[in-house]
Specification:
The protein has two domains: 107 residues, no CATH class; 40 residues, no CATH class. 23% of the residues lie in helices and 33% in strands. The chain contains four helices and seven strands. Strand 5 and strand 6 form a beta hairpin. It is elongated, with a radius of gyration of 19 Å.
Length: 147
């Protein structure tokens, strides 16, 4: 796999025998397996993170005006402040073809470094999706962008 190739999910690697693959057990959960999707993630933009903070501030103000406790809005059950997410969850579909933007990538997901990823472009919404490289397959030469 290299930059510019067209890729899709490898059905044998991603899905159970009941859904056309060769896995004995589901990759993540049976709901995703039945829908034919695999989880990927994208990095949030500064505007999306700013919106998260603004939504949190608005929720605190609304709770104060209603006379409710705001502790659970600003802090989790352990008393730690809620951290803004740095990435969002999205799905890669088995029936779609994605252009490969980076064949070998690493990224920070959930505050941990993840390696063995590829970056693909979701042509429906323009997001760069990070997904495990092992779950993708490139299209054959005749199927792949006329090469």
């Amino acid at each position: 796999m290299k930059k510019g190739d067209l890729a899709r999910l490898n059905v044998d690697t991603c899905f159970t025998k009941d859904n056309g693959g060769s896995r004995e057990y589901t990759l993540t959960n049976s709901h995703n397996d039945d829908r034919g999707v695999v989880e990927g993630f994208y990095i949030l933009t500064k505007e999306q993170r700013d919106q998260w903070y603004q939504d949190k501030r608005d929720a605190v103000i609304a709770a104060q005006e209603a006379g409710l406790d705001t502790f659970s809005i600003s802090f989790d059950d352990g008393g730690e402040s809620r951290l803004c997410p740095s990435e969002g969850l999205t799905y890669v579909h088995r029936d779609r073809i994605y252009p490969v933007l980076r064949a070998r990538a690493r990224a920070v997901y959930n505050y941990h470094r993840r390696v063995g990823l590829a970056v693909i472009l979701d042509t429906e919404n323009g997001r760069e999706i990070y997904v495990k490289r092992d779950l993708l397959e490139t299209l054959e030469k005749g199927e792949n962008s006329g090469r």
